[in-house]
Amino acid sequence: MKIEQKVWTREKGWSFQNGEEIHGAAELVFLFAATDIFKENTFWKEIKAMYPEAHFFGCSTSGEICGDSVFDNSLVSTAIRFEKTTIQGNCISLGNTAGTYDAGKRLAQSIPREGLRHVFVLSDGIHVNGSELVRGLSESLPEGVTLTGGLAGDSDRFAETYTFWDGQPSRDTLAILGLYSKALKVGFGSMGGWDPFGPERIITRSQENILYELDDQNALDLYKKYLGEHANSLPAAGLLFPLSIRSKSGETGIVRTILGINEKEKSMTFAGDMPEGAFARFMKANFERLIDGANGAAFRSQEGLGTSSPELALLISCVGRKLVLKQRVEEEVEAARDALPGNPVLAGFYSYGEISPFASGGPCTLHNQTMTITTLTEE
């Protein structure tokens, strides 16, 4: 495959960044941008003139990844010309479905099944239950088809997110990209790097992704007690103190991030399911472990490619990691790059949730506060 990567900013317009110029011959263009840029829609005429035959697939972000750099308030385009792979895509409105699970099923069924190798999904980041989305997709995809992706972001505002397949970016939208090829090799990996603190507690009252009680105590009040002065900045402060949940003794914990709070109901809404009876524990950041987690995710993604080097690496990292790492945020992108052989083009974004198996061969799930990497190459 051939890849051309550009960045657009209000101050400088378009600038070439990575890859090789393909002079409009792209079949697919990933577009990741700040929410305000998608709302303005001023770039569409130019980008369509650059790539007149391409499909456009993307979402709003909490930061854009281009090479080993992290941008804010930009548009990153990654144009691809495949040699042995064909693509299909679609998008649906969440409002036209019976809920997130149904949306996942419909999305999976909206693209052809024959020859499907891998699916990449981008979702609204605020109004979906990511766990239900993954369940609906996984149950409806053909056996052996792998799945990765992420939830759109909106900086740390949690106000609105945009997603699209062709057409205009829109709210409450889910989009899917299907990759069809026997020559395509796909790898993926996901790791965190957060430290637990405080006792492990049992979720005693919840409904899907809404948490009400831990150890028969009001969960929001308990959470505020642990956050102290940070509680005044909820829900954004929740990005710095996620919860790890597990359903069985010894099971690998899955991290969950708060999307919103309801002071009247004293409840917290998370990006994925918070099942009753599961164990939950508060988490806090560890700078070095976050960066090591990005490096580990890259190593895991390489396992799926065997001895082949990736040509493209799609990085989806959580906005919470970005808020913690601050000026060191590019270190986790660099750590991921250093773990990948060859010279792949890196693209991606900071998200409200990451979709991937932990490693090759495992079930797909929704993650929060991880670095999730999908690597692609054609043989």
Quick tags:
single chain, 379 residues, alpha+beta, 8 helices
Description of the structure:
- With 379 residues, the chain is an alpha+beta fold.
- Helix content is 20%, strand content 41%.
- The chain has 8 helices and 26 strands.
- The strands form 4 sheets. Strands 14, 15, 16, 17, 18, 19, 20 and 21 form an 8-stranded antiparallel β-sheet that branches. It has a 6-stranded mixed β-sheet with strand order 2-1-7-3-4-11.
- Helix 3 packs parallel to helix 4.
- The longest helix has 17 residues.
Outline: globular
Share of residues in helices: 10-25%
**End-to-end distance, in Å?**
10 Å
Number of discrete helical segments = 8
Give the strand content.
35-45%
- The SS-based structural class is alpha+beta
Task: Give the mean pLDDT.
Answer: 93
Please mark out the parts with pLDDT under 50 across 5 or more consecutive residues, or reply none: none
What does this entry show, briefly?
The chain has helices spanning 35-40, 44-50, 100-109, 130-140, 219-227, 287-303, 319-325, 329-338; strands at residues 2-9, 13-19, 28-34, 55-61, 64-66, 69-71, 75-81, 86-93, 116-123, 146-151, 163-165, 173-180, 184-191, 195-207, 210-214, 217-218, 243-246, 254-256, 258-262, 267-270, 279-284, 312-318, 345-351, 353-356, 365-367, 371-378. It is of the alpha+beta class and 379 residues long.
